[in-house]
Amino acid sequence: MKNIVVVGAQWGDEGKGKVVDILAPFFDIVARYQGGHNAGHTVKIGDRKFVLHLIPSGILHGECDCVIGNGVVVDPAAFNSEVEELRLLGVECEGRLFVSTRAHMILPYHTALDRAREKQLGANSVGTTMRGIGPAYEDKAARTGVRAGDLLYPDLLREKARACIERANRELVAAGAETLDEERTLDEYMNEADRLTPYLRDTASMINRAVRDGKSVLLEGAQGTMLDVDHGTYPFVTSSNATAGGAATGSGLAPKSITGALGIAKAYTTRVGGGPFPTELLDDTGAYLQKRGNEVGASTGRPRRTGWFDAVVVRYSVMLSGLDALALTKLDVLDEFDEIKVCTSYKTRDGLIEDMPYGANALAECEPVYETVPGWKTITSGITSFDELPEAAKSYVRMVEQLCNAPVALISTGPERTETIIREESLVSEWMK
Ligand code: IMP
């Protein structure tokens, strides 16, 4: 049995898209289990760069089926436009892409509420992607949401959605925001949403049946551990469980059937949106990382905040998701530094801590304790074998392994699929059989 979950080990944008793209050919099904079109997985098709927001990156590999699991929130307009873009690139989705009937839908009022609430929060805003993600998950938890399977009962769906829009309009009025015209919104929405119908399936049964038949599943996480609604820097988080536990609830695959977990971590750290970030660099070094690493949000185009590698964060992620191995991405971005810093613990009012403290306020007060190591000052871009890395880069990787309690099985040395080191006799090399 080979069913692996891929998790972001920091604040998202670690390069999960590239890693999933490498692993997908060795799996029968690639399934998303949480988040929505707030994610942005940049993949390259020939000379073209393409950003997938909602559809699993596995879609680019004709041999695997793709699933949007019950834990995902689906915006039909975003879904349709991705399907259309893929079609123009010669990738057909119908018959290979399946959407859970239990996945909740993002309606236009969710997006309107997301915007209105962020505006009201002002300086304390979460910095959401404004895609309606939080409000859609709120409806799910409040038991007032619309699910993809409701498309099979259009009259009931309209009735439910109408009540939701009425309720949202009351909040929008109170917030001084523009309200939605109920019937027009519904008509437009149903036009888009109807196109989802051929993709609907009981995906939990589908996945479990495939596993019973000896097939393998790659569970593709979105965002990252520190954006997990339970374990992240709450309230500066997304509204779903990005950690490995979410893969079981969000796909319906029984936890005991998940056989491995791979964490993706950048060789430094980035974050988009608000919230604490202990190793953030607000100086020239941070600006350099931003430019050299091309750190611009794939979904929103916002510049990403940058900082040194934080081993407290990744160690926490290894613990929470039981990560068997790490993929360390963008190592080449550090090529030119004389010295590189790694945060090993935090200094607090009560002394040194090595574990994640409770709450965003406490984390904001933490001061990173750094270990400084020599840089390698050698171009590593495109290197495909660990032995070819300069000694200082090898030491850096080993330090990450030691501090984070997990082996580094894959190292990314550039954006291309080929610019990758797969460590020999590692779990990743096992999974690629
Ligand atoms: P939301 O998911 O749009 O509600 O945004 C909540 C927080 O998660 C914000 O700080 C976003 O910037 C962040 N976020 C959401 N999706 C991603 C992602 O794919 N990568 C990085 N950050 C994300």
Q: Mind explaining what this structure looks like?
A:
Strand 16 (339-348) and strand 17 (351-353) form a beta hairpin. The longest helix is centred in the middle third of the chain and has 21 residues, at 154-174. The chain has a ten-stranded mixed beta sheet, sandwiched between helices. Strands 14, 16, 17 and 18 form a four-stranded mixed beta sheet that branches. By secondary structure, it is α/β, with parallel strands linked by helices. 32% of the residues lie in helices and 20% in strands. Helix 3 crosses helix 4 and helix 3 runs parallel beside helix 5 (154-174). It contains 13 helices and 20 strands.
Q: What is the alpha-carbon Rg in Å?
A: 21 Å
- Tell how many strands the DSSP assignment holds: 20
Number of helices: 13
- List all distinct small molecules, including ions and cofactors, that are bound in this structure: inosinic acid
Shape: globular
Secondary-structure class:
alpha/beta
How much of the sequence lies in strands comes to: 15-25%
* Helicity range: 25-40%
Strand count, sense and closure of the main sheet? Answer: 10 strands, mixed
Average pLDDT over all residues? 95
Task: List the quaternary state of the chains.
Answer: single chain
Distance between the termini: 12 Å
Q: Strands of the largest sheet, in order across it?
A: 9-7-5-2-10-1-11-15-19-20
